[in-house]
Design goal:
This protein has four domains: 128 residues, Rossmann fold (3-Layer(aba) Sandwich), CATH 3.40.50; 165 residues, 3-Layer(aba) Sandwich (Rossmann fold); 75 residues, Helicase, Ruva Protein, domain 3; 49 residues, Arc Repressor Mutant, subunit A, CATH 1.10.10. The chain contains 20 helices and 14 strands. 49% of the residues lie in helices and 13% in strands. A hairpin with a 6-residue loop joins strand 9 and strand 10. The chain is of the alpha/beta class.
Length: 457
């Protein structure tokens, strides 16, 4: 992408000289002779970086800095100063300036500083793009809580849309932490039952005796401690939906009663004689292989087929890593706000660590990782050092070896080559890790003749 740089200086020769140098570096340059004109340029153009002198008429560089940091905090500001005003420049950095340069300006130093500043800016813009993509996906689909653009997730969303408004029982399978409950939420919220009760029961959290009472209720005196009649979850879910999470944990006696509800829409409370009729849709979920449980004799085959009218399998995060960037962006926005911190993005090394990690805890673990990183982050960009040790221990982001004396062009080629290899030739992932657009990556691959590397992996 081509960045826009604003140079603000009341000395014409300095202003135009710096502008010419940065134009030759490939940037689009805007010039302003004082802070007031500079502010007008910022308000009327998409400026990515401001380079401003400190001492100027009408509006000083210090005043311009304060206005930029208060209204456009993501635009980095580099301060120009004479040797006699270095202390003032240091104070400006405390007020939010990215860095400062002393006059006369060393153009090589300027070039490096601009690249550093814009690298930070690019991360911010990349994070914004991801946030916008999350918004676009949420607006196009009917369920904003499920985030993903992988082929697997698109298929799941199609199935949800197709089965939600039917009466069919749905069995959601997948490892712990993949988001099975979110799928259940989406099915209920899209169904004609959405205005009625949606009752959730986490079966593994309840003992065998307590689970039966929780599901079907009990009569007063039916067991020790039953001091009053209690309605069960099935009764409370009448005309609505019940979600039975970890259905593979329930015992055989409870399985029989659930089977009867599915077949006859009837049950009795524990210790009761009256038969209760209910109209309940059952959505269940498990991280177990229920067919294995059937072979072991732990789960009834007839109940399995009643529950498994429609199966939705949610794949683990390691099998859909293209969803990581969107999930990370969504969690970063949510958790930054929750913790009262201003985090604008994740740097490429940290992103690479996220892609390389195997995520045994799936989305739940990713959310926990982002929350920890937000809390530990000292600046406004999450770095590899901010992430939990369990994530960084598996990162091979330091595998790229560059020989001292190598040209910048050859260094860039090697970084792209190795990242392509790490991402198994996936250009979308490679572009995300490098923090560049897919079109830019494609152009670089052609420029550096890396098509063979892409094809091999």
């Amino acid at each position: 992408m081509k960045f826009n740089i604003l140079i603000v200086d009341d000395e014409k020769n300095i202003r135009e000289g710096l502008g010419q140098s940065l134009t030759m570096d490939g940037y689009k340059v805007y010039l302003a002779e004082n802070g007031k004109k500079g502010l007008e340029a910022i308000n009327s153009n998409d400026i990515d970086l401001v380079i401003t002198d400190l001492k100027m008429p009408e509006l000083s560089g210090e005043q311009l800095l304060k206005k930029v940091t208060s209204t456009n905090p993501n635009i980095p500001v580099i301060i120009l100063t004479g040797h006699g005003s270095i202390e003032t420049a240091v104070n400006a950095m405390r007020d939010g300036a990215f860095d400062f340069l002393t006059k006369p300006v060393n153009l090589d130093r300027l070039s490096l500083l601009v690249k550093r500043a814009l690298s930070s800016r690019q991360l911010v813009l990349k994070h914004r793009e991801l946030e916008e993509e999350v918004k676009r996906l949420s607006s196009r689909q009917k369920f904003s809580s499920i985030i993903g653009k992988s082929a697997q997730m698109r298929k799941i969303l199609e199935i949800i849309d197709q089965v939600a408004d039917t009466k069919a029982s749905v069995l959601i399978t997948g490892e712990s932490g993949v988001g099975k409950e979110l799928v259940a939420d989406a099915i209920h919220n899209l169904s004609r039952r959405r205005d009625n009760s949606f009752i959730k029961v986490h079966c593994a959290a309840l003992s065998e005796n307590l689970l039966e009472s929780e599901l079907f209720g009990h009569e007063k005196g039916s067991f020790t401690g039953a001091i009053a009649r209690k309605r069960g979850r099935f009764e409370l879910a009448d005309k609505g939906t019940i979600f039975l999470d970890e259905i593979g944990e329930i015992n055989q006696s409870v399985q029989i009663k659930i089977l009867r509800v599915l077949q006859e829409k009837k049950f009795e409370r524990v210790g009761g004689e009256d038969t209760i009729d209910v109209d309940v849709r059952i959505i269940s979920a498990t991280n177990k292989d229920l067919k294995d449980e059937i072979e072991k004799g732990a789960f009834r085959e007839d109940l399995f087929y009643r529950l498994n009218v429609v199966n939705i399998h949610v794949p683990p995060l390691r099998e859909r890593k293209e969803d990581i960037s969107l999930l990370a962006a969504a969690f970063l926005k949510e958790l930054s706000e929750e913790n009262g911190k201003k985090i604008d993005g994740i740097d490429p090394k940290a992103y690479l660590a996220l892609y390389e990690y195997n995520w045994p805890g799936n989305i739940r673990e990713l959310r926990n990782c982002i929350e920890s990183s937000v809390v530990m982050c000292k600046g406004n960009i999450i770095s590899l050092e901010d992430m939990p040790p369990s994530i960084t221990a598996e990162s091979s982001s330091d595998y790229i070896k560059l020989t001292p004396g190598i040209t910048l062009e050859d260094a860039e080629k090697e970084v792209i080559r190795m990242t392509l290899i790490h991402q198994k030739g996936n250009k979308t992932k490679t572009a995300e890790v490098l923090g560049i657009g897919r079109k830019t990556l494609h152009r670089k691959i052609q420029e550096y003749q890396l098509e063979a590397v892409e094809a091999k992996v």
